[in-house]
Amino acid sequence: RNKQLPKLPKSSADVDVQGRFSIIMGGENWLVHDSGEDDQERILIFAVPSSLQKLGSSKHWFDDGTFKTCPNIFY
């Protein structure tokens, strides 16, 4: 595993999304919502403001789940 990446979390409480993992290139914060480390069914929502504006003005949304690419604790 890449030495620049943190260890894989064992629980959702172990996920630290502060600092460099919540900021994208250009300095924008893309962590929109974190239900909290104490939440057994923790929800993290990532989005950039410009994308949220587009979603807000759209009549239809289409989504996709790429669950096999994330740690097992999240699906």
Relevant terms:
little secondary structure; 75 residues
Characterization of this structure:
The chain is largely without helices or strands and 75 residues long. It has one domain (12-74). It contains 1 helix and 2 strands. The protein has one helix spanning 49-56, and strands spanning 31-34, 44-46. The chain has a two-stranded antiparallel ribbon with strand order 1-2. The longest helix is centred in the C-terminal third of the chain and has 8 residues, at 49-56. It starts with 30 loop residues before the first strand and ends in a 19-residue tail after the last helix. The model has no long low-confidence stretch (mean pLDDT 82).
Query: How many DSSP H or I helices?
Result: 1
The tally of structural domains comes to 1
Strand content: 5-15%
Based on secondary structure, the structural category is little secondary structure
Determine the fraction of residues in helical runs and give it as a percent range: 10-25%
- Per DSSP E runs of 2 or more residues, the count of β-strands stands at 2
Task: Write down the overall geometry.
Answer: globular
> Rg from C-alpha positions?
14 Å
- Point out poorly predicted stretches: none
